[in-house]
Amino acid sequence: MTDITPLLTPVELGGLRLPNRVVMAPITRARATADGVPTELHAAYYGQRATAGLIITEGTWVGERAIGFPGVPGLHRPEQVVAWRRVTDVVHALGGRIAAQLWHAGPGSPAELSVADLRVVAADFRAAARCAREAGFDGVEVHAVGDFLLPRFLNPRTNRRTDRYAGGRLLLDVVDAVVGEWGGRRVGVRLSPYWSTTEGFVPDESTLDAYDGHVAGLAEYPLAYLHLRGPEAFDPDHTPFRRYRALFTGPLVVNLGFTRAAADDVVACGVADAVSFATHYIANPDLVARFALRHALAVGDPATYYRGGAEGYVDYPEHRPRVLSSSGSAAETTPPARG
Predict the structure, then answer these.
(1) Which of 176, 213, 256, 295 qualifies as a cystine partner to 230, CB 3.0-4.6 A?
(2) Are strands 274-277 and 54-61 parallel, antiparallel or unpaired?
(3) Do 156 and 206 form a contact (C-beta atoms < 8 A)?
């Protein structure tokens, strides 16, 4: 017996019609070659997850200056474009939709970068967006989460500039550049107002007020969606997301801490249009089917998350536990993990 809940109904994000609202969130897995080229393992990995309403790839470097660490693929060299085309062809052949996340690790703090440096950043995003079109992606997402280049400029704690690049101007320049290649209906943006990898980071009202302005600025674009990462402490009332739902009238994708039931709730109450899952998708390539059939979720092995190779990447089997009876007597055999 399938359970067609709000999460499993169709939705339109930008120009894409999705069969369900289960989005595969970007997940760094460190399987690219030393030159940042995806391999056949990437084609298998994303192909296995093609039933997602939308796949958003792991972050991909937008240029040589953007690279932060090894094992992450790029989208700025011809051989990378060819390899990604193999991935997108497989996903499309299996009925899926896939967007590339564009990422810049950043060479330093906002104070250390010149205006000329930042113009190059926007140009790199534009070039990578063009490469994504050539590689057959259905859209792109601008990475602006954590402690990397773009979010450093969005947080008033880390951006003390008083010139053009005070506040969120760099993000808007990047969005302008990417939209120039794609049109806004195929461009998403991911933000993390409540989250950072900085130890001891606690978002204060100044930070959240700044993000109010950033989200309001993004609302001026006809974006495919805004993708928000929530706070580490999950709020069953979805209060953190409601704050930005009021400021952004386009499609909203939310992330972090959701069980299937909580994801259904956030969609049903109108706070979000779709929910993205990261941890769940590592060990559950058939996540949509498991949600629909109320099957238990597998748990991934953290030791293999960034190890490289096939183990813990493409070798998670499809799980076939007992399906619910018409009376509902075989409910989820284990509580669903959050991720």
Answers:
(1) 256
(2) unpaired
(3) yes
Burial class from Cβ neighbours inside 10 Å (0-12, 13-18, 19+) for residue 232 reads exposed
For range 10-37, the mean pLDDT: 96
Average pLDDT, integer, range 318-325: 55
Domain parsing of the chain, residue ranges = 6-304
- The model's pLDDT over 210-256, given as tens digits with 9 standing for 90+, comes to 999 999 999 999 999 999 999 988 999 999 999 999 999 999 999 99
Which tokens go with 126?
């534009």
- Decide if domain 6-304 falls under CATH 3.20.20.70: yes
Which pLDDT score is estimated for 318? 76
Residues 120 and 78: beta-carbon distance below 8 Å: no
Distance CA 187, CA 267 (A): 21
| Contacts (Cβ under 8 Å, ≥6 apart) of 3 | 291, 292, 293, 294, 324
Query: For the chain, where are the alpha helices, taking DSSP H only?
Result: 40-48, 78-93, 115-134, 149-154, 169-182, 205-218, 239-245, 260-268, 279-283, 287-293
